[in-house]
Design goal:
Layout lengths: L1 E2 L31 E6 L9 E11 L2 E9 L9 E8 L5 E8 L5 E9 L5 E10 L5 E3 L3 E5 L10 E2 L2 E2 L2 E12 L2 E8 L9 E7 L7 E5 H4 L5 E9 L2 E8 L4 E7 L4 E6 H4 L8 E8 L2 E8 L10 E8 L4 E9 L6 E4 L3 E7 L2 E12 L5 E8 L6
Length: 377
């Protein structure tokens, strides 16, 4: 996704002294150019002040739709809603009154935007409830459709079963031609009775979905959760977060059969666990993965926002950057990033929309901006 003609109104931070590091080093690099702003703050709000899990999609020139959870906690907060705002990228201001999507006594945990090939728009929500044992569980993936580019939304409706499987959490989508591919997770207590991340497709803009492959099985019977995909050659690159605290990159064909794969946690000293809510993108022929990272054994270094440049041919890490919390401060929740490239003043800026909680306070929704050319060196 690439937006044009945006102008920055903020000043850059002073250059940092650490330069690009070798990926085999335990000390990653920090960008020389960074600006940051709080877009939506928990401060001054007495209830439902936990703002988390942003998702973005282009909605016009210099603007995006931004959704996020508005609730009381990271988990287990019935009544949490998905809030949607329209944001002007040039000014950073909200230009449309917030819209809230929710179901009484249900948790709208994660929303993910989908723009179909015909231009129609939908948000798919990981809807949860608290069961009799006090555990959170999915009620089945919910969708809300907008026919006016996000100015309004239809009622939340369950997606329902797809070829005998009910899904709970949609991670990412990609369009090839007029076909839209998606990575979606199902759970053992939903219809179908298994926990896996599956690849699906739709040829009719979401009216009907079809199963392609069970990626948990395809990738070696590994338990995986949040995943991302990016078109590459005659297939895709897929990034998977493992329940075994491993982060992997996989190259697959259009049927999601494995061509090659790499465990970058094992091969990169500065990555000691999985990458939280991984997101893939490409810029000027370079390939990137961003998400929450930990360094050091037993996560002794506080969570950071990482940017990983990798070689798509060998699926090897080329460079690793810390985009946020290089100071190792007390970040208590955060870093589910949404990247987007924005043209501004003759430069391409990497915009990262994210959430971040400090010192145990509720999170803010923030935007960080970086000079993208730094990450090509």
């Amino acid at each position: 996704m690439k937006l044009l003609n945006s102008t920055l109104l903020l000043l850059p931070l002073l250059p940092l002294s650490i330069q690009a590091a070798d990926p085999t080093s335990p000390i990653p690099a920090t960008p020389q150019f960074k600006i940051e702003e709080t877009l939506i703050s928990y401060r001054g709000i007495d209830e439902q002040d936990y703002l988390a899990f942003p998702s973005i999609i282009e909605s016009g020139k210099n603007e995006i739709l931004l959704s996020y959870k508005r609730g009381e906690a990271h988990l287990k907060d019935p009544g949490a809603v998905l809030e949607v705002v329209r944001l002007n990228l040039k000014s950073g201001k909200i230009i449309q009154d917030p819209i809230q999507l929710g179901i009484p006594e249900t948790i709208m945990q994660m929303g993910e935007w989908v723009r179909f090939p015909n231009g129609s728009l939908a948000t798919y929500i990981d809807a949860q409830f608290i069961d009799d044992q006090g555990k959170h569980a999915r009620i089945g993936l919910q969708q809300a459709i907008s026919i006016d580019n996000g100015k309004s939304f239809g009622a939340l409706k369950p997606v329902g079963e797809i070829e005998g499987i009910e899904y709970g959490y949609l991670f990412d989508t990609a369009i090839v031609g007029k076909r839209l591919y998606a990575l979606i997770m199902t759970f053992e207590y939903l219809a179908g009775g298994r926990r896996s991340v599956d690849a699906l497709y739709t040829d009719d803009n979401g009216d009907n979905w079809h199963f392609i492959n069970n990626l948990s099985q395809e990738f070696g019977d590994i338990r995986i959760n949040e995943s991302s995909l990016l078109p590459y050659k005659d297939g895709f690159i897929v990034a998977t977060r493992g329940y075994d605290n491993m982060q992997r990159l996989h190259q697959v064909d259009l049927e999601f059969n494995t061509i090659q794969e790499t465990n970058i946690t094992e091969n990169t000293p500065a990555i000691s666990s999985y990458i939280g809510r991984p997101r893939l993108f490409t810029y000027e022929g370079a390939y990137f993965l961003t998400g929450r990272n930990w360094r050091g054994p037993n996560r002794e270094i506080p969570m950071e926002l990482a940017l990983i440049r990798f070689d798509p041919k060998r699926l090897e890490v080329e460079k690793l950057y810390v985009l946020d919390n290089e100071e190792r401060g007390k970040v208590t929740d955060g870093y589910y990033p949404c990247p987007i490239l924005v043209e501004s003043g003759g430069k391409t800026l990497l915009n990262i929309f994210d959430y971040r909680a400090l010192f145990g306070n509720p999170p803010d929704i923030i935007r960080m901006q970086f000079n993208s050319s730094e990450f090509l060196r």
